[in-house]
Amino acid sequence: MSNALTAQQSTALRPAGQFDLSPQTFDQALTFSQYLADSDLVPKDFKGKPGNCLIAMQWGSELGLKPLQSLQNLAVINGRPALWGDAVIALVMASPVCEYVTEDDDGETAFCRVKRKGAPEQVRSFSMDDARKAGLAGKQGPWTQYPKRMRQMRARAFALRDVFPDVLRGMPIAEELQDIPTDTPAASHGERHMGQAEVVQPEWPADRWAAGLQKWVDGIAAGKPLADVLAWLNSKAKVTAEQEQQLRDEVAKRQQVADTSTTAPDPEKLGAEIKACTDLNKLYDLGNQIETIADPSQQATLTDIFDARAAELEQA
Length: 316
Prior knowledge:
This protein is an alpha+beta fold. It has helices at 3-12, 26-38, 50-63, 67-73, 85-94, 128-133, 142-145, 147-163, 165-168, 174-178, 185-188, 206-221, 226-236, 241-263, 267-276, 280-288, 296-315, and strands at residues 74-77, 80-83, 98-105, 109-116, 122-127, 198-199.
């Protein structure tokens, strides 16, 4: 059976009005690759290179791309196949495991927020400070002409590769590979290290924070270090400056109550000890405890008792 006949039969099985040149056999793929390589409508990486066309179609097929989509969205960067950023987000958003992808930029830092079904939201960012550290800021080309777009692509690449590696099959991102100098060891070995991805945790929701606050204060009061509790909380979600201060204030209040309850003596007992005291130095130690009594009237009574006893001992 000829390739043409096979293609006609496969086309006949599709609904009316749809036309698809996707190869059904290896021979058809070879023939189709040759046609594409001879075409003026393919990117330069594939012009006159049927082998490249064939491999790109196979890569695209594994990612869920049609042959022509594969050639338009796959690029060869430093000898490696890579996906352009817009194709990356398209593949992720088309996947049933993706709940949402949102992107924004505050003029200095790009953020990409993604959520996988059944998992918490993840956020990645890339700032101009990150770009300067990576030697990208001011670099001739897109980083000079379109810095906002380049920040967006970098934050997107970090987020989507981290959260949806199964969807992307480990495929590198073209915008990242383009920024690796071709004369570096990273480029020659195909490595993708382009600086650190800043992991931005979602903030603690106000209702969950309020519900758990006293429990965390109880834990600190029971002996857990405040720094350890904050580290654990930040591992779950970002603790804002206001939330941290609130936690510290609650811990201080709890400690103040504990200090008062454990150090304040019984007023009647303290008064009896002052009256019975025969040592002037011990009397002054007892007098210092009067300040720990919360009731002002009791403080005044004890002060009178102290003054009277101090006068007696000083005259003795």
